[in-house]
């Protein structure tokens, strides 16, 4: 195991997962990724709220309060390590079970927390990203829409394609050709002074930073924002593009195929509001 990754299993430092585990066998579980600043978990309540909703959707016992206790223990440890910025992942699996898809009658969830340091200053807006169009099409399942479950093969393939193309991210389309998201984030387009973002009814993740942009950052700047179906024609002709996720905050886009963007005034203004939210964030 890499020395710069710290791991806890059910609140105890460890380096191995007891087997069998339904998270490994079937992807039976979910996860949250939080940004830590000097051991402080940013926007933690938004993540814990989404965790609780996901546990309910997957009919897992509500272990969110236990996960929060473990989170506090881990954050205290990270302070002692002196990592200015770190990525923390909480993974909850259904734990052990008999062979077969059906969930066991008695479930004891496992809570795995991993933390690794980040090398960049998250108070600085990330460099503009180059995107590629993923070859695969994102599947649609309204029942699981928004749930950050462990089945991420589509994102793995899309991210691998981006790396092979020496790009920063992949754009994912659904089977009707509509733009959905990037592999690890939610998309926003600036069109005629209005912010557009694809709807989340059938497949993408309900990102915590997406919610922050919609509910707080955009209103603070007086920006009109709405969910709208976005095809590639709209994407290529828009004034500005950026995406959001928990580790990068807001990241502008500089290119996708033959389309390119050179200035990012809306993303920059929103990022400055984002930093103000970080400064006032109590969790």
UniProtKB/TrEMBL annotation:
Coiled coil start-end: none
GO molecular function term, any single one: 4-amino-4-deoxychorismate lyase activity
Catalytic activity: 4-amino-4-deoxychorismate = 4-aminobenzoate + pyruvate + H(+)
Xref: Pfam families: Aminotran_4
SUPFAM superfamilies, sorted: D-aminoacid aminotransferase-like PLP-dependent enzymes
Enzyme Commission number(s) from the entry: 4.1.3.38
Keywords, alphabetical: Folate biosynthesis, Lyase, Pyridoxal phosphate
Pathway terms, separated by semicolons: Cofactor biosynthesis; tetrahydrofolate biosynthesis; 4-aminobenzoate from chorismate: step 2/2
Cofactor: pyridoxal 5'-phosphate
Annotated family: Belongs to the class-IV pyridoxal-phosphate-dependent aminotransferase family.
Protein name (record): Aminodeoxychorismate lyase
Organism: Candidatus Marimicrobium litorale
